[in-house]
């Protein structure tokens, strides 16, 4: 038996209880916030987080939460954790509190230093610090990252439990893998009394959807100008 879950942020649709019921969604993972790429590394709350949290509570949906980190020093990590914990303060989650480490942006265009380009030991120390801070508040945690980061930057470390994006399969405390439909599965036997398999359905980024719609609209305009249907 599989339990289906949905990854929700301001980059995807808001919670639609009708669609959730139609697709047998039983839990959601909400983005609480993120640190952006500008030089000041501004910390932001996801614009839909509070609304989605209230909707999840209204519809009695189980949920977890995540924050997209850009920290490259312990000082930045502390600032992010303080900000993240303040967002989720007094809120209750049935699934893990997740830290996402996938900052691989071009450092020439964006902030001069990204997680992609710092020493892997520094990234590991930052991750350990942040996880310890979250767990000290009584939360269960996961580290979300890319498959190649798990293989290279974290060197398949078993210090944490992982949510791995685009991974075939990992044999760890939580087993994660992705299929061609961008569905991520993980075993939650340690988070609940049953041993069901969990699916997290990852939607397309809304920016990607917009680009596709712009291309499609442009193609229609072009066809109309040259007299084709």
Please describe what this structure looks like.
It contains 6 helices and 10 strands. By secondary structure, the chain is of the alpha/beta class. It has a single domain, classed as TIM Barrel (Alpha-Beta Barrel). α3 runs parallel beside α4 (120-135).
Mind sketching the topology for me?
Elements: E1 2-8, H1 17-22, E2 25-35, E3 43-45, H2 49-58, E4 62-68, H3 74-88, E5 97-101, H4 120-135, E6 141-146, H5 147-153, E7 162-165, E8 177-178, E9 183-187, E10 197-201, H6 206-225
Parallel strand pairs: 1-2, 1-10, 2-4, 4-5, 5-6, 6-7
Antiparallel strand pairs: 2-3, 8-9, 9-10
Helix pairs in contact: 3-4
What's the short story on this structure?
The protein is α/β, with parallel strands linked by helices and 229 residues long.
